[in-house]
Amino acid sequence: MIVVKAGGRALAQNLDNIAKSIAKRASEGMRIIFVHGGGDLVSEYERRMGIEPKFVVSPQGIRSRYTDEAELEVFVMVMAGKLNKEIVSRLQRYGANAIGISGADGGFLKAERKKKIVIVDERGRARAIPGGYTGRIIEVNASVAENLLNSFQVLVVAPIALGTEYELLNIDADQAAAKISMGIKAEKLLILTDVEGVIVDGGVLGSISVDEAEKLQPKIGTGMNRKVMMCCEAVRSGVEEAIISTGLIDDPLEALEREIGTRIKT
Amino acid sequence: MPILKCPVCGGDVEVPDDALPGEFFEHDECGSQLELEIDENGEMRLRQAEEISEDWGE
Predict the structure, then answer these.
(1) How far is B10 from chain A (nearest CA, A)?
(2) CA–CA distance, A4 with A15 (Å, rounded to integer)
(3) Which member of A86, B43, B54, B58 has the greatest number of CB atoms within 10 A?
(4) What is the Cα–Cα distance from A13 to A133, expressed in whole angstroms?
(5) pLDDT tens digit string along A38-50?
(6) Among chain B residues, CA nearest to A59
(7) Which residues in chain B touch residue A60, judged by CB atoms under 8 angstroms apart?
(8) What domains lie within chain A, and their CATH numbers?
(9) How many CB atoms lie within 10 A of CB B20?
(10) What predicted TM-score, i.e. pTM, was given to this entire model?
(11) What is the pLDDT of residues A105-143, one digit of tens each?
(12) Count of CB atoms within 10 A of residue A29's CB?
């Protein structure tokens, strides 16, 4: 099994090619779990519904959505509804029998709600605030994916998990993809983004070991850093190879077969 | 500016007047990371800040 993740920007710019690329591998017998992001689309729908999206910045400079109760409602509607089903329909159009779920369905992804997060507030001072409805994945029920992939070619997963008190939680899609790849013992994890791979000193890194990737982290930008950390965790847990590559080309899943993007191995 | 006690070394920690609950301070003397708590009576106190990772949602 292969886990592929694409962020909202890659999907917004290149959904058609991403879907064709997945459908092509599915027709060749590859079993694929596709995890999608889509934060920008959630923001767009929040504004349409009169809710101004809230963002917070971490001390490391990472800007993230702050998910309160009203935001969570839109998040679930857009991620598990509109976007997930749009991806499923596109895959169906290109011949892949796909099914879409959120991580809450079948108890696929369980997460622990974050009690607090640390932000840098508008005065530039670090402060702990209530965590809202975001979670950290603590369990992947692999049998849900295995059972569905016995009947369908592609499983499309929205980044929503079930909390310990059965509440719905917003989870980071990179983290979801990495944890799923570990939980189902995937051969490969492919993270598609809107850049060519991990860029250090102006150049894209080719193949690097987990140790090298961890040493390079101070040189990598904050958004990419989290992806690299998740890839390292997946590879250390037994995933053969984790690849970070562009989702903006005609056949993005080529990165599984050809030396493009950044490959992280043991 | 209010002066509070460091829960780690017992030294004095100066906190700005506009400090908010949850705000972090590093105690210069012992290097501890401290978090400000303000109770319902407006009483301020410091406690050792817990490690909070950054794996936020999408």
Answers:
(1) 22
(2) 13
(3) B58
(4) 28
(5) 999 999 999 999 9
(6) B54
(7) 54
(8) 2-265 (3.40.1160.10)
(9) 13
(10) 0.88
(11) 999 999 999 888 889 988 999 999 988 999 999 999 999
(12) 7
Q: In sequence order, what are the residues at sequence separation of 6 or more whose Cβ sits closer than 8 angstroms to the Cβ of residue A211?
A: none
Q: Cβ of B57 and A169 within 8 Å?
A: yes
Q: Note the residue count of chain B.
A: 58
Of the candidates A17, A14, A94, the one whose C-alpha atom is nearest the C-alpha of residue A251 is A17
Task: Give residue A216's identity as a one-letter amino acid code.
Answer: L
Three-state SS at A181: helix
What ipTM does this complex have? 0.72
Which residues make Cβ contacts (< 8 Å) with residue A157, sequence separation at least 6? A33, A34, A35, A36, A100, A101, A102, A103, A108, A109, A176, A180
Phi/psi-derived region of residue A208, left when phi > 0, alpha when psi is between -120 and 50, beta in every other case: beta
Give the separation between CA A107 and CA A161, rounded to whole angstroms: 8
**Residue B46: CA count within 13 A, CB half-sphere:** 25
Q: Rounded to a whole number, what is the distance in Å from the CA of B9 to chain A's nearest CA? A: 22
Find out whether A264 and A210 touch, Cβ atoms under 8 Å: yes
Directed axis angle between helix A69-76 and helix A39-48, to 10°?
A: 110
